[in-house]
Write a structure and sequence with these properties.
This protein is about 5% helix and about 35% strand. It is mainly beta. A four-stranded antiparallel sheet has the order 1-6-9-2. Strands 3-8-7 form a three-stranded antiparallel sheet, with no helix packed on it. The longest helix has 7 residues, at about 30-40. The radius of gyration is 13 Å and the shape is globular. The two termini are about 25 Å apart. The mean pLDDT is about 95.
């Protein structure tokens, strides 16, 4: 599985908390299903080569879309301790506006 990132990439964040601004140091991803899975706060998560995600999260969550332009290598950088596919996880360097996509994500 390959994830590409460019100026047109849509970025997502999943959380079990409601907010309007994403804090610096938060994780974002171009993989919508991954953000949705992380919104359930799993302690274990895995995916196969086709991108099918399995996790043990049980909390209801919120799925957000980053609602402003992201400048690669300025506003975000690759997560240094990620064990996932390249470009799956990035950390933010500044506060970012978000748009709530789903109030409660089905488990």
């Amino acid at each position: 599985m390959q994830l590409l990132c460019n100026a047109d990439t849509v970025w997502y964040h999943g959380s079990n908390i409601y907010f309007r601004i994403l804090n610096p140091g938060s994780t974002i991803t171009p993989w919508k299903a991954l953000a949705e899975a992380f919104s359930h706060k799993p302690s274990q998560l895995e995916y196969d080569d086709d991108g099918n995600i399995q996790h043990n999260g049980t909390q209801k969550g919120y799925l957000y879309k980053i609602d402003e332009p992201i400048l690669l290598e300025k506003d975000i950088y690759p997560h240094p301790r990620s064990t996932m596919t390249q470009n799956a996880e990035f950390l933010t360097t500044r506060p970012l506006q978000v748009k709530l996509l789903k109030k409660t994500v089905d488990i």
